[in-house]
Every structure is written in structure tokens, then in C-alpha cells.
Design brief:
alpha+beta; SinI_DNA-bd; 3 helices
Length: about 80
């Protein structure tokens, strides 16, 4: 995911930029932020997402698990 997307140099990203990274709609990104699933910061009415944290989340999601079948719920 990180190889296909060029993260901005700015410290914060817009919902539109985050939506492109995670391949979801902007509304869903806002919903995830409201639920506390992804971190966000409010600047007045504007909601922004820390670029460094989004990079870490994208890298964590692209890493392969150490061994197959170790996730809960898998048999």
C-alpha cells in the first residue's frame, strides 16, 4: 500500500487523501475517526489525520503475519 501511494510531506492529511490510501469513501474515513478507530485532529471545523500515523498504519497492514492461522477466529 505504501509503495503505490505517495504520502504528502505535510504533517497532516485530509480525509480525501486518507480515503485514497485505505480505499474507502471520505464519509467512512470520517466515521472511523468519530469512532476512534483512526486518529484525527480538529482544527476548528476541519478534521485532519497525522501523516506519520497513517504511514505506520499502512505499513502495519501490508506486513505479512509471522505464521498462517495465528489470528483469532481462524481454525
Amino acid at each position: 500500500m505504501t509503495a503505490a501511494y505517495q504520502f504528502p510531506d505535510a504533517p497532516f492529511m485530509t480525509a480525501s487523501e486518507v480515503a485514497k490510501v485505505v480505499r474507502l469513501s471520505q464519509n467512512h474515513v470520517y466515521h472511523l475517526a468519530d469512532m476512534g478507530v483512526i486518529p484525527s485532529v480538529r482544527f476548528g471545523r476541519a478534521v485532519r489525520f497525522p501523516t506519520a500515523v497513517m504511514k505506520q498504519l499502512a505499513e502495519a497492514k501490508t506486513e505479512k503475519p509471522d505464521s498462517a492461522g495465528t489470528e483469532p477466529g481462524l481454525s
